[in-house]
Amino acid sequence: MNDNKGKNIQWYMLAVMAFSTVWGFGNIINGFVYFNGMQVIFSWIMMFGLYFIPYTLMVGELGSTFRHSGGGVSSWIHGTIGAKCAYYAGWTYWACHVTYIASKGSGALKALSWLIFQNGSTYDTLPTTWIQLATLGVFLFFCWVASRGLNPLKKLATIAGTSIFIMSLLYILLMFAAPALNPGASYVKADVSLQTMIPQFNVGYFTSLSILVFAVGGCEKISPYVNKMKDPAKGFPKGMIALAVMVMTCAFLGTMAMSRMFDPAVINESRESFNSYVSNGGYWAFQRLGEYYHVGNLFMMIYAACNTISQCSTLVLSIDAPLRMLLDNEEARQFIPSGLLKKNKNGAYSNGIKMVVILSGSIILIQSFVPGAAAVLAQLQKLNSVTMPLRYLWVFAAYIALRKAADRFKPEYRFTKHQWFAYLAGGWCFAVTAACCILGMYVEGDMASTALNIVTPFVLTALGLILPEIRKRERKSENAVHSNQKDQP
User: Fold this and answer.
1) Orientation angle between helical segments 128-147 and 350-366, nearest 10 degrees
2) Single pTM value for the model
3) Fewer CB in 10 Å around end: N or C, the chain?
4) Of 368, 346, 379, 335, which Cα lies nearest the Cα of 473?
5) Confidence class for position 154, pLDDT limits 50, 70, 90
């Protein structure tokens, strides 16, 4: 028997696969805007070295241990802690997507407006109520698509996502070449001295760190590939270090490219200016790139078209896929009320989709009161950075539990042989994630956004705690009915 049969993924292949999964153009934009331009480079280096690398290596050990489990984080928690916590892990993964879903409709309309009007001002100057009602309409339409058991945009999502990924790399290459090919164009003179690259460690800095955690998270998606490598013990850490180098290089070069286009002083001159850059920064970047190469809005329109398709397809997949992951999970189903497990004739969880409509729809309608469409997108970006990383907490909890029960498991790959270092790494990443999410809830000078960032996770958590109690009452009622039937002659 050949133990290496079917194991043909080299470390560099894994690094490229992970890179396209983890990294995106939006991460460059958000880092540059939220961290005062070039100053984000210091924060990227710290985040990669102290968080991202240990995070990916821990995921590798979990994936190697539970190589036959298809439930991801829920399976890891079920195997290390128990069924009840596996339900909560699955619930957290689903609940995080409630806010994410609310943002996708707005993102799709924003991309479509750039594609049609070729500017950001048309969308940003429309009344917020109109925008949010249109967003609600888009959201309800794709909920209907999901309820029909259809995922017509799944293949387009892959194509659009790949296109945006390729364009983000081309942006860096073309932007560095632009001053040589078109020296007469207008460029920003960036100060790259060491002194200017050290950030100001103020309230705004620490409350924005959740943006970076959100940017580098999600590498658990690559865990199934660990055991498909030729030599996991050596190849996986090598691949993850290569991934970190690739991401760091892209973040560094992308930030340098942005610094030749945008002045951080202009971005931060007012709250309105800041929101505009959060909302339009990616489109402005490709628009200016087109000006440098004398092709007008060509690059921007390609980016906007790809982003429109990507946002719409991600919306319908985010409605359907996390819900199925939660409700299809046999370990989780025992804690979920039977009503939510109801399927329609198309095989979709109809009542589950209705719950998505109520929760995500409420967030969309609440934002009708936000002054300005650009402010809505900025608010959603911050809300996602607070809620989405909450699911990573279960990854680190699973890892700590795995190492506590090390004698029960025999993974092909281990992050470290030293138990004390494993506990330290797992605890450190758990603490960093939790701290960044909690600090990220505060938005300086915007108590409405702060309130939304605090209330949303608490409401979703409370709902996740209530459902098992409802199921317990259902079970008692069912047992009482069976008991009465037995007592009858």
Assistant:
1) 170
2) 0.91
3) C
4) 335
5) low
